[in-house]
């Protein structure tokens, strides 16, 4: 159905169950709240029909992929229907010679990587649980990984998108399409919008050749100041690592057994070039008091995949995870402030020097974590609560200070989702 036909909620729920397979609502809890119904759908058309039914009946819908990033978002204003998209998992258009692919939103990162590896191609993404992370979830959250330093954001690789809208239509934009929505940049509009304007059902990407070899240079320093000096020297050089982070001692000890402030620089490319790059990076970053080691190819893959778990929006219990944006040159000051103010409560800290982001995970009681967020929300250029217990989120906007364009965002929400059907209240400024 399309249009603005009104339906009774019970009628809409009954018709929804005819579109797909019902699932156990207890498997789709968002911030402690289960939906009234959970539905597994297998086609873009069914998704569009489900959105139209929900909009007509005033039901609130939350799109669901693997659930691996569901920690991100404000508490739901309402939550009636969970829409499981994992049945939309097909690769629908793959042209290896053109380095392009179109996949449905429920395709997991693991499955996509396996298909691309057969042709020596990739999307430069890492995940600690790639069997759970879906392509639709990656686009909807827009969280990315440290490899954005070398390859750019995932948004830069999207060439086309198909989105189901609450009016029951499928809107297409960009490449590999037969219909475009005039007046909107569809890829930028829906990237990182948390499914608040439409449900992504397909995305098309330009691909990259897989690197022949990968290595990671680790350099442990006796102080934060020395680690940041080394990292900024690398960042300002022409050595071009694809990812560049500094780990706090507690994090470095857990991941690589080096209980000091530790720089990690990722090298990717031809075998010989990667060897030379790692050596030159060590010369640039290391000092007389530092300790260096190299992670080989397989170790590199495991390290960055595992580290991504400390940067993700996986739902958390008893801790809060915050992402803070700051100039790379000021990340050292920010890290020093985190250590001074939070001490042993700081369970993990990762400074993404390449992208200008700090990730901090803090432990404490609900009251302590709520007090922490009121201060952390003012750190840096912007701050986002990536994940936290429900009682910590209550009453706050987890996206921190409203951006300058919030008025435009409100108008877009009113245009695309006037009934507040999609993820109501969960996005920036409680949209």
UniProtKB/TrEMBL annotation:
Its cofactor is FAD. GO terms for molecular function: FAD binding; oxidoreductase activity. Keywords: FAD, Flavoprotein, Oxidoreductase. The keyword Flavoprotein applies. InterPro entries: FAD-bd_oxidored_4_C (IPR004113), FAD-bd_PCMH (IPR016166), FAD-bd_PCMH-like_sf (IPR036318), FAD-bd_PCMH_sub2 (IPR016169), FAD-linked_Oxase-like_C (IPR016164), Oxid_FAD_bind_N (IPR006094), Vanillyl_alc_oxidase_C-sub2 (IPR016171). This is FAD-binding oxidoreductase. It comes from Thermomicrobium roseum.
